[in-house]
Write a structure and sequence with these properties.
Layout (H helix, E strand, L loop, with lengths): L1 E5 L9 H8 L6 H10 L6 E8 L4 H13 L3 E11 L1 H6 L7 E4 L3 E3 L15 H26 L3 H10 L5 H6 L5 E3 L14 H24 L12 E4 L5 E4 L12 E2 L2 E4 L5 E5 L2 E6 L5 H23 L3 H12 L3 H7 L23 H17 L2
Parallel strand pairs: 1-2, 2-3, 3-4, 3-5, 4-6
Antiparallel strand pairs: 7-8, 8-9, 10-11, 11-12
């Protein structure tokens, strides 16, 4: 909902500078309302107007009134302080049930008038012309008041003639508002016009119907009767949903259901849906296959465990690759030195046996020793 604050005098664009010089406030014009509507999100269908204005220029006021009503938006208007003269016309842009007022706000309606200091010579013909114009403006305003409040011209003209402010009770009596905005801290007791209840009920029916029509249209249905009744929602083994038109009991072949296709339920049954109807229900297969699958899984897990224990480290694979590139272990043995240093003679006169080991052998031995410590084997 977009919020529109009309909290200044209503003036024409050309008079904003003069109004600023006289009052310190430039005022609000029809073009300001146009800019506001252009700024609104196109998908936002509501405008909530808060009014705190003493009115002003008639032409600008009627233009704002017409623009709000022609916007196609849901208009709500609320008097938050003062609402006088042309501001009361803008208030009536909202329908009766969406016109409200704060408890201590006030309103004033009066006949149109020309301010002091009219330029030009005030001849008889000029005065007659001005009088005719004011009469026409008054008739226009009274007719609008009658149309939007439901009151008689006599009642409204009597109040206009007093040229006095009136409170929320009089505003309700004259049909300008439907209710008083309650304080949040207080109990919600609205001072409601007697005819409000009936109008609100009619509006609720209209709005509800309109909302239902939009929802049905979005879902692809023309009437509520076209919406398929869904009684059961079954969860498949994959977490999807199968909708079956049955309120209770086991699903049967011939029950309307959606979507089409084969659906495996959590209990193992397979439900086949064709053209929106269950055409086949296959029971779950015997548990023997399940046992076989479990045995096969255990066997594969054992193989993985054995292969993991036999897996070589990256360093071992690097050495094996090096050996393979050198022509294999036998070739390396032949290429290794066969020199045996002179051993010491034992007490029996024999030479002590001396073991020789190649560099690759030493490296492999170191790696094995390191792996033993690392993997505790």
């Amino acid at each position: 909902m977009a919020k529109l604050f009309i909290n200044k005098d209503i003036v024409a664009d050309k008079d904003k500078n003069l109004n600023w010089w006289l009052t310190g406030d430039g005022g609000m014009s029809f073009s300001d309302i146009q800019c506001f509507m252009d700024w609104m999100d196109p998908t936002d269908n509501s405008i909530d107007v808060e009014i705190h204005s003493c009115g002003g220029d008639c032409v600008e006021g009627y233009a704002i009134y017409d623009a709000l009503r022609a916007s196609g938006k849901e208009i709500s208007c609320k008097v938050v302080g003062e609402c006088a003269s042309m501001a009361t016309v803008i208030l009536l842009a909202a329908p009766f049930e969406r016109r409200t007022m704060y408890e201590h706000a006030r309103m004033l309606i009066h006949a149109p008038y020309y301010p002091d200091g009219i330029g030009g010579s005030l001849t008889v013909s000029r005065l007659q012309s001005l009088a005719a114009e004011l009469t026409a403006q008054k008739t226009k305003m009274v007719n609008l008041y009658v149309e939007r409040t439901g009151k008689t011209a006599e009642e409204l003209e009597t109040q206009m003639a007093t040229d006095a402010w009136f409170d929320v009770n009089k505003a309700i009596e004259l049909g300008f508002i439907s209710s008083v905005v309650p304080a949040i801290s207080a109990k919600a007791k609205n001072n409601i016009n007697p005819k409000t209840e009936k109008m609100n009920k009619e509006k609720k029916v209209t709005v509800a119907s309109s909302l239902m029509d939009r929802l049905l249209k979005r879902c692809g249905y023309a009437r509520i009767e076209d919406v398929p009744a869904v009684g059961l929602v079954l969860t498949t083994s994959t977490g999807d949903e199968l909708n079956v038109e049955r309120e209770e009991g086991e699903i049967q072949v011939g029950d309307p259901a959606s979507p089409d296709g084969e659906h495996v339920l959590e209990d193992g049954r397979t439900v086949v849906v064709t053209d929106g109807v269950i055409t086949e229900i296959r029971e779950a297969e015997d548990g023997g296959d399940t046992a076989a699958l479990e045995a096969r899984i255990a066997e594969l897990e054992q193989q993985v465990s054995e292969l993991t224990s036999q897996a070589k480290t990256a360093e071992e694979n690097e050495i094996i690759s090096f050996v393979a590139k050198a022509g294999g272990l036998e070739k390396l043995k032949k290429a290794a030195s066969s020199y045996v240093p002179t051993g010491r003679t034992t007490t029996a006169g024999k030479r002590a046996e001396v073991k020789t080991e190649s560099k690759i052998g030493k490296k492999l031995a170191e790696i094995r020793e390191k792996n033993k410590k690392k993997y505790n084997y």
